[in-house]
Predict the 3D structure of the following.
Amino acid sequence: MNLILVLSALINGVAQKPAELPPLTPQQQDKVRTLATRTQAEAKKLKERLEKRQNELTLLYSDYELDLKKVEAAETELIEIQKLMLENYRTMQVELRKIVSEERFLILRKRLDLMLQQGKPSPVPSEKPVRK
């Protein structure tokens, strides 16, 4: 999920209907940018850690002589990393609700849902026309 793109669209008002919602204040924009950057950095770090541990677990399973204590420790650590990933996402969701109005959040939620259903980042229209 490309959180920066989605939250950027929210900041720039791309997802809003111009007559319905006022633009975010500069303070809200800064808070959303900071939240997005922090959340994405943490998610990247956790994903790398998760992949490393998954590879280690795969190596443990590749040996015929299975070291159950090492396997159980690796599995426990994988579960802990997954919990941290969920916590990171939940924290972002809670903080976002503190920054934006319910109306703007509902628009963002629709964009996130669509992005997740399609399995790819939501396109963010450019403010400048694309030259051909």
